[in-house]
Amino acid sequence: MSATAPALEISGLTKSFGTMRALDDVRLVVEAGTVHCVLGENGAGKSTLCHVVGGSLVPDKGVLRLYGTPYAPRRPADALAAGIAMVHQHFSLVPTLTVGENLRLLRLRDLPRRVARVREEYGLEPDLDARVSDLPVGVRQRVEIVKALLREPRLLVLDEPTGVLGPAETDALLATCRRIAAAGHAVVLVTHKLGEAARAGDAATVLRAGRVAGGGPLAELPPERLVPLMIGRPAASLDAGLAGTIGLTEDRPSPGAGASAGPGTGASPETGTSGAERRRGPGALRLSDVGVRRADGSYALDRTSLDVGFGEIVGIAGVEGNGQSELMALLGGALAPDTGRVELAGRDITRAAPRERTRAGLGVVPEDRHREGCVPQLPVAENLFLGRLDRFRRYGVFLDRRAMNHAADAVLTGHGIRSGGPGALMSSLSGGNQQKVVLARELALDPLVCLAAAQPTRGLDIGAVGAVHSRIRQASAKGTAVLVVSSELSELLVLCDRIVVAYRGKLLGPVDPSQPDARERIGALMLGADHPAGSGTEGAGRAAATAPRPVPGDAPRH
Ligand SMILES: Nc1ncnc2c1ncn2[C@@H]1O[C@H](COP(=O)(O)OP(=O)(O)OP(=O)(O)O)[C@@H](O)[C@H]1O
């Protein structure tokens, strides 16, 4: 190893999947002691690059050097042996095992010492006894990061690690990246958030359609220069309010935006003055005294009530683990409540099967789209029309694939989904493009009485976030009720008419996002203000299963 050699040097890297060239003559240099960000649109080739470095994909062409030494991994074990640790977009934990059992699977010498070191150096303390399947995605992600750090890597590759993290955890992770760099090692950080890149990164490389579009020290790459490199159009063309969502600025909703009072605010509902097809008023989605108990007897949802009106966009903020996952599982039909009732446009759907809910007009975008939102082994077209394939059946039996693929083509183009076409397997799409497919499918339900979406823009590039927000607004303008669960407070502030805060299974608030103190108010509710049992110090529900815990100052800052 040479003292001055870059930590990682890649040149001429090319990788194709059939006719799809995912990486095309890519050059990238990561200096030792730095955090190097890899940016780019959905499908630009970022994950493919990570997979090549991590040894799970063998490139068609290209040369890699690690700290000056030729490096040509053929399998993940080669990367591990070379001191590279990876955190991929998809979880590698065994859900039926506990966190401790998962860590033991790594077969590392001195595990207790390593765990203690990760706790001391990075403040990450996994709850070793917690079963992985019981943990929310954000906590699982932190366990994945702990797993990577236990290997004491000299190069850490993180593929969009912050998508499922709250603000406090994101700050902690970025600080972890800086610490690794300060120790002389290096980090490759894939992110869609320019704010994160600016906070943690030293340099960046931007990929577009598999090629390097530009890059350099981040100090010389302000957003006005980065955005055009990423999306091929000026930063000024981005949707208003988006800047905050991607972490560029701390935006405020514009006066009047999202100010319409919903049923829960006590104001009288609108009666349909702005458009013939626009339906208004309460009762599109109604939860009454819904109770869901966890296996340990605690309440994930504690006699929760909520009314989302036709045409209203309601946001649910809150630290992960306060009942949001159970609420989404309940709406999707994967979980039946112990008490209470769920109604869609007056119809009792408390125990309706998922297919019945779809037919009744309830669109659901689950938090873990990869596991619950799609079928990776099926083609994109079938995923786009899941639950509605009947419209392409001939004589009630045969699937008219031509017609289905034709219809799918139109959706793929309309939603800017990059794929190998309607017949490509869903698993071959990039993470962001999979998310776009799930969103496109649920938004296309007819009727669409209510869309319930968890983290709808997670993993989407900055251009796609704006497009999804406009689609949600369009659906709402037509009378669809929208419920958005998001860890992105900026997203909720620009999108919603009303925001409630999940805290220990209750929905606190509402907060009017147009009020100047909305962020502060939401921050207070996230810590339990207004909770019937008084505020708590923990406030994190299950999110406390792996430190760091949220602290009051972190909650509203995102
Ligand atoms: N196993 C595969 N088979 C076929 N095509 C693939 C495969 N893996 C990736 N691709 C294609 O390669 C391109 C790059 O995908 P990749 O996952 O690297 O993008 P990305 O930049 O990480 O996107 P995102 O931001 O959405 O995660 C995409 O068009 C994707 O569909």
How are the secondary structure elements laid out?
Elements: E1 8-17, E2 20-30, E3 35-40, H1 46-53, E4 61-66, E5 69-70, H2 76-81, E6 84-87, H3 99-104, H4 111-122, H5 137-150, E7 155-159, H6 167-182, E8 186-190, H7 194-200, E9 203-208, E10 211-217, H8 223-231, H9 242-245, E11 281-293, E12 299-310, E13 313-317, H10 324-332, E14 339-344, E15 347-348, H11 354-360, E16 362-365, H12 369-373, H13 380-384, E17 393-394, E18 398-399, H14 401-414, H15 431-443, E19 450-454, H16 462-477, E20 481-485, H17 489-495, E21 498-503, E22 506-511, H18 518-526
Parallel strand pairs: 3-8, 3-9, 6-7, 7-8, 13-20, 13-21, 16-19, 19-20
Antiparallel strand pairs: 1-2, 1-4, 4-5, 9-10, 11-12, 11-14, 14-15, 17-18, 21-22
The structure holds adenosine-5'-triphosphate.
Describe this structure in words.
- The chain has three domains: 8-237, P-loop containing nucleotide triphosphate hydrolases (Rossmann fold, 3-Layer(aba) Sandwich), CATH 3.40.50.300; 240-361 and 445-558, Rossmann fold (3-Layer(aba) Sandwich); 371-441, no CATH class.
- The strands form five sheets. Strands 6-7-8-3-9-10 form a six-stranded mixed beta sheet, sandwiched between helices. Strands 16-19-20-13-21-22 form a six-stranded mixed beta sheet, sandwiched between helices.
- It has helices at residues 46-53, 76-81, 99-104, 111-122, 137-150, 167-182, 194-200, 223-231, 242-245, 324-332, 354-360, 369-373, 380-384, 401-414, 431-443, 462-477, 489-495, 518-526, and strands spanning 8-17, 20-30, 35-40, 61-66, 69-70, 84-87, 155-159, 186-190, 203-208, 211-217, 281-293, 299-310, 313-317, 339-344, 347-348, 362-365, 393-394, 398-399, 450-454, 481-485, 498-503, 506-511.
- The protein is built from 18 helices and 22 strands.
- Strand 4 and strand 5 (69-70) form a beta hairpin.
- 30% of the residues lie in helices and 23% in strands.
- Residues 250-277 and 535-558 have low confidence and may be disordered.
- It is globular, with a radius of gyration of 23 Å.
- By secondary structure, it is α/β, with parallel strands linked by helices.
- The structure holds adenosine-5'-triphosphate (ATP).
- Adenosine-5'-triphosphate binds at residues 17, 20, 22, 40, 42-48, 418-420, 428-433.
- InterPro entries: AAA+_ATPase (IPR003593), ABC_carbohydrate_import_ATPase (IPR050107), ABC_transporter-like_ATP-bd (IPR003439), ABC_transporter-like_CS (IPR017871), P-loop_NTPase (IPR027417).
- Residues 549-558 have a biased composition (Pro residues).
- One of its GO terms (molecular function) is ATP binding.
- Residues 245-285, 528-558 are annotated as: Disordered.
- This is Simple sugar transport system ATP-binding protein.
